[in-house]
Specification:
By secondary structure, the protein is of the alpha/beta class. 42% of the residues lie in helices and 20% in strands. The protein has one domain: HUPs (Rossmann fold, 3-Layer(aba) Sandwich). The protein has a 5-stranded parallel beta sheet with strand order 3-2-1-4-5, with helices on both faces. Helix 1 links the parallel strand 1 and strand 2. Helix 4 crosses helix 6. The C terminus is likely disordered.
């Protein structure tokens, strides 16, 4: 079914919600590979290439986090890789999915509605409009799942 699954992570408890789901899905799909992506969207991340900047401390922390998550998946027997991107999250995720030949994007959503969605924006909503890949959205509620694995630190 799916051979390469792109999983956006944000370094929050919502990551564990989608990763728990993806572990099961990847196994069901004959051990599909998992490609993690984190899109840093701070000023330095959005301008790193144009201005030839160094990674900010935030970006270094993001890189450490995503690489640790990928490493933990590899230790569990999954084929996993990590990519740190910078810029607009929805656009970077969609571009990565195409560039890396993924056949599914799977992400946790916060479930914002109404005004909260307008003020906070919704990467999931924008992504589903711009990506040509199927997008699986899993509603996250990490506080209601005390048995879920905790984020890698």
């Amino acid at each position: 079914m799916y051979q390469r699954i792109l999983v956006p992570v944000e370094n929050s408890p919502y990551d564990q919600v989608i990763l728990e789901h993806i572990r099961k899905l990847a196994r069901t799909c004959n051990d599909a590979s998992i490609l993690l992506i984190h899109v840093a969207d701070g000023w330095a991340a959005r301008n790193i290439n144009q201005l030839d900047l160094r990674e900010s401390e935030e970006m270094k922390g993001d890189r450490e986090y995503i690489e640790a998550v990928a490493e933990s998946l590899v230790k569990e027997g999954f084929q996993a890789e990590a990519i740190l991107a910078g810029g607009d999250p929805a656009k970077e995720i969609a571009a990565c999915g195409e560039r890396e030949h993924c056949d599914l994007i799977a992400m946790a959503t916060h479930g914002h509605r109404g005004l909260a969605d307008i003020f906070r924006g919704s990467v999931a909503s924008e992504l589903r409009h711009i990506s040509m890949l199927p997008v699986l959205m899993v509603r996250g509620n990490p506080e209601s799942n005390p048995g879920a694995p905790r984020p890698v630190t």
